[in-house]
C-alpha cells in the first residue's frame, strides 16, 4: 500500500481545488480551477472544472496508483439525486484517467472533519455560500441555511457582494456620491469609479453588467467589502457586522445554548484573518 494515492477535491462556487496525496501524507500534486458547484454553474461546466483541477493535481502521478477519491461539494445531495449531473462527474473522473471509486460529501461535513476529530459538534461555513450544521457520529444531523444564493446563504460571500451592489445602486438613486466601497465596486464592475453626469446611466450600466453574468459571481466582490471594512469604511464595516449577525443567527438555529462540543469555522471568510471571522 506504500504506493497508494488518494485524491480529494474541494468544490465551491468560485473555485475547485484538488489534492493528490499518499497514505503517508506526502503531497504529490495540487490543482485549481474555476467554480465547480453544479447548482450554481450547471453540471456540464462544473464537471469541466473538476477535470481541469484533477488534471493539474495528477500531472506527475500515475492515475493507476489512485485507489480512492473524496469530493466535498456544496449541495452534494442535489448532485447525488441528479442522474445527469452524477454522470457528468463520472465522465470527468474517467477522463482524468481514474478508475477507482469516489465518494461525494457535503462541504459542511468536510469542513468539520478538517477542524476536529470529535464525532459530535457544530460547523459554520461562510464562503461563496453559507451553512451551519450539527454533526452527530460524523454525520450531518440538523442543518440551517445552505439554501443557495436565491433563497438564503445570508452572511456569505455572495450576500456581501450582493449587498454591496445594492448599497451602491441606492446611493446613485439618491444622487449621492458613492463612498469608498461603492467606488471600489463601481470600478470592479464598470472599469471606472467615475459616475456619469446622469447617474441613472451608471445605474443602468451596472444592472446590465451584473445581469449578464452568473449571479454567483457577485461573491467575487466580497474581498472588496472585507478590505473596505479593514480600512474603516462605514459601509464595509456595517456589512461585515450584519453578515456576522446573520451567521450567528444561522448557527443558533441548530446549536443549543450552552453546547460545549466543538464549533468549527469553515470557508474562506471565516478561516482567514478576516474581520468577519473576528465578528463571529
UniProtKB/TrEMBL annotation:
Instruction: State the InterPro entries in the record.
Output: ATPase_BadF, ATPase_NBD, Euk-type_GlcNAc_Kinase
A Pfam family this chain is assigned to:
BcrAD_BadFG
Segments forming domain ATPase BadF/BadG/BcrA/BcrD type: 7-269
State the protein's name.
ATPase
Q: Which organism is it from?
A: Micromonospora craterilacus
